Amino acid sequence: MTDSTDLIERLEAERWAANLAGDVEKLDSLLSDRLEYIHPTSKVDTKQSFLANLRAHNPYIAYEVLDQKILMLGSTAVVTKSFRSTARRNPPIVPVNRVVVEVISSAVWTQEGEDWRLIHYHTTFIPKAD
């Protein structure tokens, strides 16, 4: 791996650690003000709406990377990843308040000045095998 690839890998790990912890301040520093965040449900968030939703309800419980590839394109990086996530449902669905899903995602990081920030994130559910 190159130094840039290592940096993007570290930033992705920091982003997910912040998601799990509900660390809005850390995420604020990692996310571009121009962020477009597309959830597997097709809901689209901006940086502001994503952080506001996280403050109100942090759904993230656990996260496990299944596969990850990083493509460096100068001042842009594309991270393609599959992962397993455990999340709290909102509103809770009785009797189960947790859901485990597998997701594939594309994360686009770009340099803004000296810093790398996430500018686009798109996720979709991986269908469960029958």
Automatic annotation (TrEMBL):
UniProt domain DUF4440: residue ranges: 8-118
Name under which the protein is recorded: Nuclear transport factor 2 family protein
Source species: Sphingomonas tagetis
